[in-house]
Amino acid sequence: MSNVIKKNHHFDAVGSYLRPAELKEARVKFAEGQISATDLRTIEDRLIADVVKKQKEHGLHYITD
User: Fold this and answer.
1) Which residues touch 39 (CB under 8 Å, ≥6 apart)?
2) Contact at 8 Å (CB) between 31 and 38?
3) Phi and psi of 20, rounded to 5°?
4) pTM of the entire structure?
């Protein structure tokens, strides 16, 4: 029996990233009237940009938010 290891594996990322604590906190603050819809949207947009950056750094070719 041979101990050959094939190195050309293919993997796809399927599913969702966990929502960051900062996003959960911002949504609670919005629901309680502590921040505006604009503030919430700014936080969401920044966090989406962060996850897209991470996906690119990991070599993913197809990225969605």
Assistant:
1) 26, 30
2) no
3) -65, 155
4) 0.72
Which one-letter amino acid corresponds to residue 60? L
pLDDT in tens, 4-38: 666 676 666 666 788 999 999 999 999 999 999 99
CA distances from 23 to 11, 19, 37, 46 (A): 28, 7, 13, 10
* Long-range own/partner contacts, residues 22-28 (CB < 8 A, 24 or more apart): 22/47, 23/47
**Rounded CA separation 1/48 (Å):** 48
Measured distance CA(53)–CA(22) in Å, rounded:
17
